[in-house]
Amino acid sequence: GEAITVADLAQKLALKGGDVVKALFKMGVMATITQTIDHDTAVLVTEELGHTAVRADADDAESELLAHVEDVQGETSPRPPVVTIMGHVDHGKTSLLDYIRRTRIATGEAGGITQHIGAYHVDTPKGVISFLDTPGHAAFTSMRARGAKLTDIVVLVVAADDGVMPQTVEAIQHARSAKVPLIVAINKIDKSEADPSRIKNELLAHDIVAEDFGGDTQMVELSAKTGDGIDDLLDAISLQAEVLELKAVAEGRASGTVIESSLDKGRGPVATVLVQQGQLNKGDFLVCGVEYGRVRALFDETGSQVPSAGPSIPVQVLGLSGVPDAGDDFVVVDDERLAREVAQQREAKRRELRLVQAAGNRMEDIMAQM
Ligand code: GTP
Ligand code: MG
């Protein structure tokens, strides 16, 4: 690999040279900003700083994988919007999701037990909408840290009997920094204390201006308890999605992101992934974070087996070598060899990084005692 000066690396990462020097120091590498560091150190410090390093070396398995992803550049077609529900504690996020899920998800014939799944899609008269559960969850945060986008629209739930609260403001900032459009769901309008216009006024202070106040933010008054206004919310989402003109390659090798994962006693590692490009099929080989495997089965949110899943559709994947992390990406590859190679390389890098970090920590301890 190639060497690079600390200053050049800092520039590539849009960071101050001093920050890179500090990160290097933590890793146990002494360097000034004019000094040159080798390729591997550059990769490690880049990752230490929360960025993803992409190698320029053509013979690396990781770049073979990258070529795989770039290969999938066929026709794009419209895809469903991916919506994340956010809002302050107790303002009704789960109730809203539950109501939509209850009324809109066609449960599978056998069993019909809806399992907990971090994401699901619903059919509306205006098309499919995918929802991500557990607002601000790990995948969302980790995706944001990487600058990638998992969600197209944020629905901000504000209880009409409570008002704009700290986590409401946090959600606004979240959506803003991720450049994701916001729709406000003014919830609990069935309550006698509900005062929707007060909510709109309070949101003004945060530059969220309702359409009937002359702004451009859609606000829907609803009740997750009675179901009043929920169809209006689904309409508002569809309208926003149309404006966004969301598209993806619907055919070919799939790629996407892990929403949540767990180790199931009977079924082994289970990952709920959101497909973002291509089509994920049963039998596909994939790399998923530092794990790999062949898709043994796919399940939708009702627990029914499905043969495949396309863009914006969440599915549970069985057949991975281990439990990936929320926020990890997955990529389908042609053969098991490449899947295994990439996964093993990543695992090796991660181990290396841990060792370096451990060394860095020890060094900090030593420094602290000096
Ligand atoms: P956290 O997950 O704790 O952040 O809360 P949440 O935002 O998911 O709120 P949740 O859906 O758990 O609702 C909180 C409480 O408000 C529950 O007791 C709900 O029954 C109640 N609630 C939610 N929506 C409505 C509504 O539209 N009307 C009324 N009257 N109560 C509601
Ligand atoms: Mg909840």
Automatic annotation (TrEMBL):
Region of interest (G-domain), ranges: 81-229
Annotated binding of GTP, by residue: 87-94, 133-137, 187-190
Residue ranges of every copy of the Tr-type G domain listed in the record: 78-247
Protein location: Cytoplasm
Record's function text: One of the essential components for the initiation of protein synthesis. Protects formylmethionyl-tRNA from spontaneous hydrolysis and promotes its binding to the 30S ribosomal subunits. Also involved in the hydrolysis of GTP during the formation of the 70S ribosomal complex.
Family membership noted in the UniProt record: Belongs to the TRAFAC class translation factor GTPase superfamily. Classic translation factor GTPase family. IF-2 subfamily.
Protein name: Translation initiation factor IF-2
Covered range of the whole protein: 285 to 654 of 862
